[in-house]
């Protein structure tokens, strides 16, 4: 008789991510994309409304500035921050740049991403007449 | 030398008599500079000779003593008792692997996967001894050296939820080693490895949780290796549409 009897520990397919802090952070980072996607969809709808004339545009503007619209955008903003910071943090792992015998430090790559983000944001704000 | 007693809660499983694992607590008199492996060795030598676990080098080189220590996959030889001030430490076999006995897990699945990625140099050109060695610059070495540091301790598999949920996933260490050889200037085996590496169960199964790289005791960064491999395959796919591209 084979004396081996390996024991397999069960893993919950629906709540595995609650077992470790790092899995929760991962799920938060994944879920953040949902809010970024909804925000983007609302923005695209706004563009379509803009093309449909002044009344349609005003209707969209009223919707996004309504209390529900504002609350959603505040939540989406928080998730957009989570999305941005968590992805930027992960970039040096995926983007490994070698110069000669040295690997470009991750901090430099992350810093460059924040630099570009700041520059693009400033450009958009100037374009919008806010800054 | 100062001494303190720690409570070592060890997950036991003796297949010939146990239906399922259970925790057994040992009160171990420990010295300040001990690691968890020293405490296990004390139990084995002085308290309970039936306890089974793997170890060899005691200097984080061999990769044998990977186990869950307070829920975190670690090398027992690198887990210092002074970092566990409560004096109570829970030791379990590596998660995501079947338990063979006590702290010993079944490694067959990993060994098969490691073999499947052809973790050896498939040379660009066969050279005879007379032709001399394969030359490599320090910069060419740097491109893959980090990924050579893997000691197959499997801490990365123990924390990978993708592997835990679906063991068809080739997994972090095997894919990092495939990347190591793919990045080697002397190697031309990428196409031969792609059957496994670029399959759905290979790099594409990884959703970049990144836990493997967080727990790696040798800082190999398997998650990074997998994302870089994905990037390389993405570039291959896009360039295949260019004139002269291979599809």
From TrEMBL, chain B:
Gene3D superfamilies: 3.10.20.30, Alpha-helical ferredoxin. It is an enzyme of class 1 (oxidoreductase). GO terms for molecular function: 2 iron, 2 sulfur cluster binding; 3 iron, 4 sulfur cluster binding; 4 iron, 4 sulfur cluster binding; electron transfer activity; metal ion binding; succinate dehydrogenase (quinone) activity. Transmembrane segments: none annotated. SUPFAM superfamilies: 2Fe-2S ferredoxin-like, alpha-helical ferredoxin. Keywords: 2Fe-2S, 3Fe-4S, 4Fe-4S, Iron, Iron-sulfur, Metal-binding, Oxidoreductase, Tricarboxylic acid cycle. Residues 8-111 form the Succinate dehydogenase/fumarate reductase N-terminal domain. GO terms for biological process: respiratory electron transport chain; tricarboxylic acid cycle. Its cofactor is [3Fe-4S] cluster; [2Fe-2S] cluster; [4Fe-4S] cluster. It comes from the Bacteria. It holds the Pfam family Fer2_3. InterPro entries: 2Fe-2S_ferredoxin-like_sf, 4Fe4S_Fe-S-bd, 4Fe4S_Fe_S_CS, Beta-grasp_dom_sf, Helical_ferredxn, SDH/FRD_Iron-Sulfur, Succ_DH/fum_Rdtase_Fe-S, Succ_DH/fum_Rdtase_N. The keyword Phosphoprotein does not apply. Part of an enzyme complex containing three subunits: a flavoprotein (frdA), an iron-sulfur protein (frdB), and diheme cytochrome b (frdC). Belongs to the succinate dehydrogenase/fumarate reductase iron-sulfur protein family. This is succinate dehydrogenase. It comes from Candidatus Defluviicoccus seviourii. The gene is frdB.
């Amino acid at each position: 008789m084979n004396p081996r009897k390996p024991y397999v520990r069960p893993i919950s397919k629906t709540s595995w991510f609650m077992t470790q802090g790092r899995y929760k952070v991962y799920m938060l980072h994944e879920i953040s994309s949902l809010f970024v996607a909804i925000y983007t969809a609302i923005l695209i709808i706004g563009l379509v409304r803009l093309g449909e004339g002044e009344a349609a545009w005003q209707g969209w503007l009223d919707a996004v500035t309504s209390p529900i619209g504002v609350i959603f955008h505040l939540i989406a903003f928080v998730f957009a921050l989570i999305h941005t910071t968590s992805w930027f943090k992960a970039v040096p792992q995926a983007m490994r740049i070698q110069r000669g015998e040295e690997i470009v430090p991750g901090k430099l790559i992350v810093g460059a991403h924040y630099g570009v983000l700041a520059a693009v944001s400033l450009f958009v704000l100037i374009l919008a007449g806010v800054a | 030398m100062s001494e303190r007693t720690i409570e070592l809660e060890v997950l036991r499983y003796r297949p010939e008599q146990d239906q399922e694992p259970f925790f057994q607590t040992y009160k171990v008199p420990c010295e300040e500079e001990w690691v968890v492996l020293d405490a296990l060795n004390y139990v084995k030598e002085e308290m309970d000779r039936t306890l089974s676990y793997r170890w060899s080098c005691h200097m984080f080189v061999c990769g044998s003593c990977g186990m869950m220590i307070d829920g975190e996959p670690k090398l027992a030889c690198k887990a210092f008792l002074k970092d566990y001030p409560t004096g109570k430490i829970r030791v379990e076999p590596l998660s995501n692997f079947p338990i063979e006995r006590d702290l010993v897990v079944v490694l067959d699945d990993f060994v098969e996967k490691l073999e499947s990625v052809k973790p050896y140099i498939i040379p660009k050109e066969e050279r005879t001894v007379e032709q001399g060695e394969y030359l490599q610059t320090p910069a060419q070495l740097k491109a893959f050296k980090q990924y050579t540091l893997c000691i197959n301790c499997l801490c990365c598999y123990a924390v990978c939820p993708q592997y835990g949920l679906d063991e068809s996933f080739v997994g972090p260490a095997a894919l990092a080693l495939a990347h190591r050889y793919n990045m080697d200037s002397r190697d031309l085996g990428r196409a031969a490895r792609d059957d496994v590496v670029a399959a759905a169960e290979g790099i594409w199964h990884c959703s970049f949780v990144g836990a493997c790289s967080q727990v790696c005791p040798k800082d190999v960064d398997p998650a990074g290796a997998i994302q870089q491999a994905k990037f390389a395959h993405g570039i291959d796919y896009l360039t295949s549409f260019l004139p002269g591209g291979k599809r």
